[in-house]
Amino acid sequence: MSENVRKRRPRRPFDRQLGVEKAQRLFHQRGYDGVSVADLTQALEINPPSLYAAYGSKAGLFEHALRRYAAEQALPVSEIFEGRDLGEAVTMIFISAAEQYSSDAAARGCLVTEGTRAADPEARAIATEISAVMVSAIGEEIGKRVPRDGHAIADAVVTMVRGLSAAAYTGMEANRLRATAEQAAFMFKAGLSASMV
What we know:
With 197 residues, the chain is mostly helical. The chain has 10 helices and no strands. Helix 1 (16-30) crosses helix 2 (37-44), helix 1 packs across helix 4 and helix 4 (58-73) packs parallel to helix 8. The N and C termini lie far apart (92 Å). The mean pLDDT is 92.
């Protein structure tokens, strides 16, 4: 063997967690349906068989990305409600959502919420399951404070949070999104006061 022939460098091991991080970014920027397997393999610098070996499928990788997002970026519902009355807690949820969903111009909205609108049924089911955790947490906290109308109030709050995500995802500017959250909180508190008269 000629001395001029270079020895091949050993291939560096694939970092699965870094792969999830890169995929999460891509899914957040383009949505599940806007990301192909080719896009993922290019971003992760691996070939399709390696992607399937590491994550099972595109939907499997999406699930890893959603769980990472939920663990690191989900609204801290219990913390928000701790020591606050219902009106103040809901105000904080709306404003926190507006700020988080518009903080990164390249990854707007809530990845989990937008995932529940995916065309792919498997991806949609995964996102819906993860979303249910936040929905349940909000419902539980509201139910403690308003046992009689808790379900309806929780549904209204969750719908508003999802609306903020959709507005951010479709490009509403951060200042308008924040103003929308504040107006929604004002109306919520006014309605709450009126219902208790």
